[in-house]
Design a protein that fits this description.
about 250 residues; alpha+beta; eight-stranded antiparallel beta sheet; 4 helices; elongated; disordered N terminus
Length: about 250
């Protein structure tokens, strides 16, 4: 009975019988079709995943470039305010490895601008405005759930009078520039002359002059979609032509 079934030939209705297909031939054809279909599906699935991953990387890169461009624009337009005749304990630029504060003229008048990182779990985050200066808004709640080890890059503006009064909260406006910065992933350094005889520039982690610096180096490390295995590291050197270039005191 089995032999008869295996030798049975199948015909397409309305066609002339010219041999047809055996059951084995039909099963073999279906098996080949299934293998080809699986291969095609796997190829398309891999392509879609690769495209999604590339798009996510591109979004992170664009966000990183936007953050660097914003900081560079602020630094290039900072004001070299002279406090020598009034507030002698103040300086036009204050900077260390993790935070910078400087003055810039805006439509609201002279403002003190700061850049620094805060933890995604910080209560300070929820007191900040979003999207005031940068072109992208940040989904803070979603990002904090997905990236518990991320920190937020903050741009803070303070009224000049409040800055002189050591930062009263009334005149302070903050903005989240990015929610994808690696923990401890923001570092500043400042340009000094190596010595009087040499014109070589060296970069130090703290600014100790009353005048604004001639150069600021910004290092940013951003988390990528594969944050456990890699990060995106960017470096930007910002030159301020009206800044001071001298030896470290």
């Amino acid at each position: 009975m089995i032999r008869r079934l295996m030798k049975t030939r199948f015909y397409v209705p309305g066609s002339r019988p010219t041999g047809g297909f055996t059951l084995i031939e039909l099963l073999l054809g279906l098996a080949i079709f299934a293998i080809v279909a699986v291969c095609v599906y796997s190829t398309f699935s891999s392509g879609i995943k690769l495209s999604d991953k590339a798009e996510q990387h591109n979004e992170v890169y664009q966000e990183a470039r936007m953050a660097l461009n914003l900081m560079a624009n602020d630094l290039e337009n900072m004001a070299n305010y002279n406090f020598s005749n009034s507030y002698k304990d103040k300086a036009a630029f204050i900077g260390d490895q993790k935070k910078i504060t400087f003055l810039r003229g805006t439509q609201k008048g002279l403002r003190a601008i700061s850049y620094y990182l805060v933890s995604s779990q910080s209560e300070h985050v929820h007191q900040l405005l979003r999207g005031g200066t940068s072109t992208k808004n940040v989904a803070v709640t979603l990002r904090s759930e997905e990236r518990a080890n991320a920190q937020y890059l903050i741009r803070e503006e303070m009224d000049f009078k409040e800055h002189l009064a050591d930062g009263m909260e009334k005149g302070t406006e903050g903005e989240i520039i990015s929610a994808n910065v690696q923990e401890g992933g923001l570092n500043f350094s400042f340009a000094y002359l190596e010595n009087e005889e040499s014109r070589n520039v060296v970069w130090k982690k703290e600014w100790s002059h009353k005048d604004i610096p001639f150069g600021v180096r910004i290092e940013l490390n951003f988390l990528t979609p594969q944050a456990k295995t890699e990060s995106l590291a960017l470096v930007r050197r910002v030159l301020i032509p009206h800044g001071f270039l001298g030896e470290q005191p």
